[in-house]
Design goal:
Tyrosyl-Transfer RNA Synthetase; mainly alpha; 5 strands; binds tryptophan; Rossmann fold; elongated; 3-stranded parallel sheet
């Protein structure tokens, strides 16, 4: 029996290499299960309600990245959250029985309000973010939800909401399990966390030339000022990348850096080569896909259609139990 799997991303921009390795690459491996991958545009609106004009375009960018990164719409279901109205309806239903205190103590709520200081997140929608996410997951009675560690509080809340619903109205929702994706945390080109707001990302849509330029500009061991200074690979972001893309050469890179036999320029060149071997097919495929926006719309329409069949049956079941 195939397992039902569901996950999603918020369409806040093009996906970067960190998103690719941290999530999409794992999704690709489990798409042979009964898998649903969503683009959570309602969730994007919870924080971007003022810069909303980019959401629709970002949805397309994310779908292009999903497909270029290897998701196959013949194997898995790819859909946009707002195109399946049942998400909004189940979220409303679940909001009736979700205690406010559960949402107020949600650690991601507090963190995000701190982190996104420029945005006013004291809204009903943002507080209810995990209720909407619970609806996403429970509508499909997902067995597994592949997510990064940061999403664990939302998964736990989903399970609590499922238990509370089942207790109050009768058994409808199975409790989903998190499927922790092994996140290979990748620093940005400046050594900080890879993030759009730091302008330090390598994107899945970057051309080989752009990738080369970004690697050339990468920060290395700041103490290694001259070519013949020995370096410390442990503090070098390039070495971090090498561990992923040139793993076979790690002992010799490490030795070469510490002894100053290997210079940063050559180190970067060997990384460029391997990284482009990995990213160039993605770039080429994405360029192909970009030419046919009609096909993208068809894939999303077909995905929403498949999702609706399951979502509407579950919603019906839940409403019947509640008695509305
Ligand atoms: N909150 C998730 C994130 O920011 C995105 C998301 C929305 C999601 N709905 C989901 C993830 C359902 C898994 C399942 O990454």
């Amino acid at each position: 029996m195939k397992k039902r799997v569901l996950s999603g991303m918020r369409p806040t921009g093009k996906l970067h290499l960190g998103n690719f390795l941290g999530a999409l690459d794992n999704w690709k491996k489990i798409q042979e299960e009964d898998a649903f991958f969503m683009i959570a545009d309602w969730h994007a609106l919870t924080t971007e309600y003022e810069s909303h004009s980019e959401i629709r375009n970002n949805v397309i960018e994310v779908v292009l990245d999903y497909l270029a990164g290897g998701l196959d719409p013949e194997k898995c279901t790819i859909f946009v959250q707002s195109q399946v109205k049942e998400h909004a309806e189940l979220a409303l239903l679940l909001s009736m029985m979700t205690p406010l205190s559960w949402l107020e103590r949600n650690p991601t709520y507090k963190d995000q309000i701190q982190e996104l200081k420029g945005k006013d997140l004291h809204t009903h929608g943002f507080l209810g973010y995990p209720v909407l996410q619970a609806a996403d997951i429970l509508l499909y009675k997902a067995d597994f939800v592949p997510v990064g560690e940061d999403q664990l509080p939302h998964l736990e809340l989903t399970r609590e909401i499922a238990r509370r619903f089942n207790h109050l109205y009768g058994e409808v929702f199975p409790e989903p399990q998190a499927m922790l994706t092994q996140v290979k945390k990748l620093p940005g080109t400046d050594g900080r966390k890879m993030s759009k707001s730091y302008n330090n990302c390598i994107y899945m849509s970057d051309s080989p030339e752009e990738v080369e330029k970004k690697i050339k500009g990468m920060v290395t061991d700041p103490q290694r000022k001259r070519r013949d200074d020995p370096g410390d690979p442990e503090v070098c972001p390039v070495f971090y990348y090498q561990k992923i893309f040139n793993s076979d050469l790690i002992p010799s890179i490490e030795q070469g850096c510490r002894s100053a036999e290997l210079g940063c320029v050559d180190d970067k060149k060997s990384l460029m080569k391997e990284l482009n071997k990995f990213l160039e097919p993605v770039y080429e495929k994405r360029k192909e896909l970009e030419k046919d926006k009609g096909k993208i719309a068809d894939i999303l329409e077909e995905g929403a259609k498949r999702a609706r069949v399951i979502a509407s049956a579950t919603l019906q079941e839940a409403k019947e139990k509640v008695g509305i």
